[in-house]
Design goal:
The chain has 875 residues and is α/β, with parallel strands linked by helices. It is 43% helix and 18% strand. It contains 31 helices and 27 strands. The strands form 5 sheets. The protein has a 7-stranded mixed beta sheet with strand order 13-23-24-25-21-26-27, sandwiched between helices. It has a 6-stranded mixed beta sheet with strand order 3-4-2-1-5-6, with helices on both faces. The protein has a 6-stranded mixed beta sheet with strand order 11-10-7-8-9-12, with helices on both faces. Helix 13 packs across helix 14, helix 13 packs antiparallel against helix 21 and helix 14 crosses helix 16.
């Protein structure tokens, strides 16, 4: 998604204010400019039209000199946090222009300037951010066939970099789901074709994408002499992408980034390959169906926002290393076997809050007093968590305990200096405790107890003079005074100074009143300034603890995720899978983790066994009618493997998982109309991607391959793909669901292809889906029965049955009809007669085939060649 640049306003005679506005706006033509005028943020011109529509605020017009008018829309400055998120979520960059001086002291027009440029991928605003998900800015660099990508969440301080081929970078972008993508202007068309429909994007000047400049930015940011310590030295394309991300922060006026203290390399070899189609098809953390339940919706039992974000990343990046997986499993198992301390830890985690984003606000000077008090509660809870972990007889938990730092010094300082329940904003006052600063205490005494002090003066002077009607008052001319009626003016003492004579009274001041007035005048302003100074000193000292508190957040996130997995297993009867370095996947009574949670009360999920290996049972050819549960079986197998490899228990009675390094899926039918691709073309592209990236540890899920074209084309392609996978030297494990019953014949020719079907029972002309996977193929599609269940008119159903009976009878009467696809494949004569036909189209096809070198043809090129031949046949 890209945003159109705001149209330039035609030059007109301008008021001084509009001249200032236009001078700032011209520097940010592609952002909505919020221009502070007094107590309001105003928008003008095209910005006002957009803002009025998005924010549902009134659109008016104002004079702009020389009888010109301009559109105007605005809102109170204190409502910024309510309106800003709406503009950002609509995909706009928002430039905030504030008054940089007090209007009371301004000479001429008030000085104004941009204080922040908020974009979809660069924000600290809690109402813009989603608590359980990162808000990543993605920076993408392309140099010929080399790609670098960086992901930066300014709200948490997380910074990741990777580089590799296009497919790898695509899958990472799909995994991380960035809120905004930036790229070099030279790649604008390519990025638009590849990503623009999915992400808000913004082009940067080409000079930004320079290795030396990017490298220097990173060295300066991390205050190091080399990037070797981060493991990214030599990552040229990745470094350029990361440098561009930092430059974008500078461009958006985010210059205080002390919380960005680390950058991590995403190592392709550590994580399971989930391509963009698999991420979409398995609905791991999002779905194209707005109301669908995702895997993450079901398994996320985390307590903290940062734990939820880490779990999302674990799901997107399953592990391949058996030892690392088993280390997570040990902790989860410990919590399952030791429920009381697990519950204690969950309770303690509830006091942590979003420590990750909180400390980022500290580092950037955006933290408010209530958030600092929350930080105190977090650090107190960390001490409790540390104690609880130390009591556990588990080496990993002991290690986590040692990693935690309660930052006692700063925690106690917050406790002794900050009010227990401070206001949200510093200027509201009552932020700093009594006893912290003597001057502050005195000012408060004067400001808040002034009436008592004045009453004391009044009573004292009345007693001294005998003037019973004496009163103390104030006016703006000469401040505090004593007022005496004419009846008592002869009692006025000599040390009083007369200031004003009225018809019935006289007003006096005293030295005591004068001293008091000097103290009290501006006391509240002084209190506000002094509290702000003391608060800012506290925040400045907090900045020294950014790194240890960030480390605390990382440790607690891991702890939260493993507690979440323990809770999930206990609540849903999951089992510990045996993850090993073998090649077999053996699942006993596996269940779909999402579907089983959506069943009606009283219904139970029909569990199924699945066994795959590379030696005896490599390809399961699964037949059965639509709605029988084939697709669910495929997906549940992949989800069980994925859960096992993030260290979780799984929905099954037992499971042995030989580590998988790639999970591929080709399920569902979809068009890519915007690119001019049909359902069949999309299907072929996705399948070609799978065939070109096989490994000996791949798990492939293929659902109804070939259904986007004619029956015979579909059968031929499905057969050829299954044969290719079986015969390939890497022997990738595959679940192949199909409605082409002819493919059952493959098990007779190919040793590692085994037939299974999702059984259906027929009773009194009706069908019952048992959803049970059983050995053997199926010869009946039950398509008409399914149509009847869908509510198809009876007339249509009756006619379909008549046509089916006729076609079956006709087929049986033809003596030379081939009864299986195997017969066709074994029939060499059919191939000979094909080329003996005197047909110019067939001759052209023959020439093309004879000129094709099948030894160098890739699977995707073969499919494209088949498509070319099909087009020739249609002429």
């Amino acid at each position: 998604m890209t945003n159109t640049t705001t149209k330039e306003t035609k030059p007109v005679a301008e008021t001084p204010l509009m001249k200032q506005y236009n001078g700032i706006k011209v520097k940010y033509p592609d952002a909505i400019l919020l221009f502070r005028v007094g107590d309001f943020y105003e928008t003008f011109g095209d910005d006002a039209i957009k803002a009025a529509k998005i924010l549902n605020i009134t659109l008016t017009r104002r004079a702009n000199g020389a009888a010109q008018f301009i559109e105007l829309a605005g809102f109170p400055h204190h409502s910024l946090d309510n309106y800003l998120p709406k503009l950002v979520r609509a995909g706009y960059r928002v430039a905030i222009c504030d008054q940089l001086e007090d209007p009371k002291f301004a000479k001429g027009i008030v000085k104004r300037g941009i204080t922040e440029l908020v974009t979809p991928g660069v924000s600290y605003n809690d109402k813009v951010l989603e608590s359980a998900a990162n808000n990543f800015l993605c920076s993408l660099h392309k140099d010929k066939d080399a790609y670098g990508v960086a992901f930066l969440d300014i709200s948490t301080g997380e910074f990741y970099v990777a580089q590799g081929g296009l497919e790898y970078v695509e899958k990472l972008i799909q995994n991380f789901k960035p809120s905004e993508l930036v790229y070099g202007k030279a790649n604008k068309n390519w990025v638009f074709d590849q990503f623009a429909e999915s992400f808000f994007s913004f082009p940067l000047d080409e000079w930004v994408y320079n290795f030396d400049y990017a490298n220097e930015l990173l060295l300066k940011q991390f205050n190091v002499a080399s990037l070797k310590g981060f493991g990214i030295d030599g990552f040229e394309q990745g470094i350029i992408a990361a440098g561009a991300a930092l430059q974008y922060l500078k461009d958006t006026q985010h210059n205080s980034n002390g919380h960005l203290q680390n950058i991590s390399r995403i190592d392709e070899e550590k994580y399971v390959w989930l391509d963009k189609f698999t991420i979409r098809n398995l609905e791991l953390s999002y779905s194209t169906n707005e109301n669908a339940t995702t895997l993450l919706n079901v398994i996320d039992k985390t307590t903290t926002p940062m734990g939820a974000r880490l779990l999302r990343r674990w799901v997107a990046l399953p592990l391949k290393d058996v030892h690392s997986i088993q280390e997570r499993q040990k902790v989860v198992t410990h919590f399952i076997n030791n429920t009381p301390p697990a519950h204690t830890l969950v309770t303690e985690l509830k006091h942590i809050g979003d420590l990750e984003r909180l400390i980022s606000k500290v580092a950037t000077g955006r933290v408010n007093p209530r958030e600092v008090q929350q930080l105190h509660r977090s650090l107190t809870a960390i001490e409790d968590i540390k104690v609880t972990l130390h009591t556990q007889q588990n080496q990993a938990l002991q290690y986590l305990a040692e990693q935690l730092n309660a930052c006692v010094v700063i925690r106690e300082r917050i406790h002794t200096q900050l009010m227990q329940d401070p206001p949200l904003l510093i200027h509201k006052g009552n932020v700093i405790q009594k006893g912290v600063n003597t001057e502050l205490d005195e000012l408060r005494e004067i400001a808040y107890n002034g009436k008592d002090f004045l009453l004391q003066i009044q009573q004292k002077e009345a007693e001294r003079t005998g003037i019973t009607s004496l009163k103390v008052a104030f006016n703006g001319v000469f401040g505090y005074y004593l007022e005496v009626t004419n009846v008592h003016k002869d009692k006025v003492p000599s040390d009083w100074i007369r200031k004003q004579t009225l018809a019935n009274a006289e007003r006096y001041i005293t030295e005591e009143l004068k001293i008091y007035e000097e103290k009290i005048v501006g006391a509240e302003d002084k209190i506000q300034a002094l509290e702000a100074q003391l608060y800012n000193n506290l925040v400045t000292d907090l900045i020294e603890f950014v790194k240890p508190i960030q480390h605390n957040a990382a440790v607690l996130s891991q702890l939260d995720c493993m507690l979440s997995m323990a809770t999930l297993a206990q609540q849903n009867n999951y089992v510990l899978p045996e993850v090993n370095d073998g090649f077999a996947i053996d699942i006993k009574n596996g269940r779909h983790p999402v579907i089983e949670k959506q069943l009606k009360v009283g219904d139970s999920y029909v569990a199924n066994d699945v066994y795959l290996d590379n030696a005896e049972q490599q390809v399961l050819m699964i037949t059965g009618p639509n709605m029988s549960g084939k697709s669910a079986l495929l997906r549940q197998t992949a989800l069980i493997v994925l859960l096992a490899q993030i260290g979780s228990y799984v929905p099954a009675d037992a499971a042995q998982i030989g580590v998988v390094d790639k999970i591929f899926t080709r399920v569902g039918a979809s068009d890519n109309i915007s690119s001019g691709e049909s359902t069949f073309m999309v299907e072929m592209n996705e399948t070609a991607s799978i065939l070109n990236n096989l490994s000996n540890r791949s798990l492939i899920l293929l659902d109804e391959i070939g259904r986007g074209t004619s029956t015979y084309d579909g059968i031929s392609i499905a057969w050829a793909i299954a044969e290719y996978i079986h015969e390939h030297k890497l022997k990738a494990k595959t679940l192949f669901a199909t409605h082409y019953h002819e493919l059952n014949d493959m098990s007779e020719r190919f040793r590692r292809i085994k037939n299974f079907n999702v059984s259906v029972k027929e009773y009194n002309g009706k069908i019952l889906f048992t959803r049970k996977l059983v050995a053997g193929g199926s010869n009946h599609s039950f398509g008409i029965h399914v149509a009847q269940m869908a509510g198809m008119p009876k007339q249509v159903i009756d006619r379909a049955n008549t046509i089916l009976a006729h076609m079956e009878q006709t087929h049986q009467q033809k003596p030379n009809t081939k009864t299986s696809i195997t017969d066709v494949i074994n029939e060499d004569k059919l191939q000979l007669s094909f080329f003996q036909l005197d047909d110019p189209v067939l001759s052209e096809i023959k020439n093309q085939l004879l000129q094709t070198d099948i030894n160098t043809l890739t699977p995707v090129e073969a499919l494209m060649k088949l498509n070319d031949i099909k087009k020739l046949m249609g002429k």
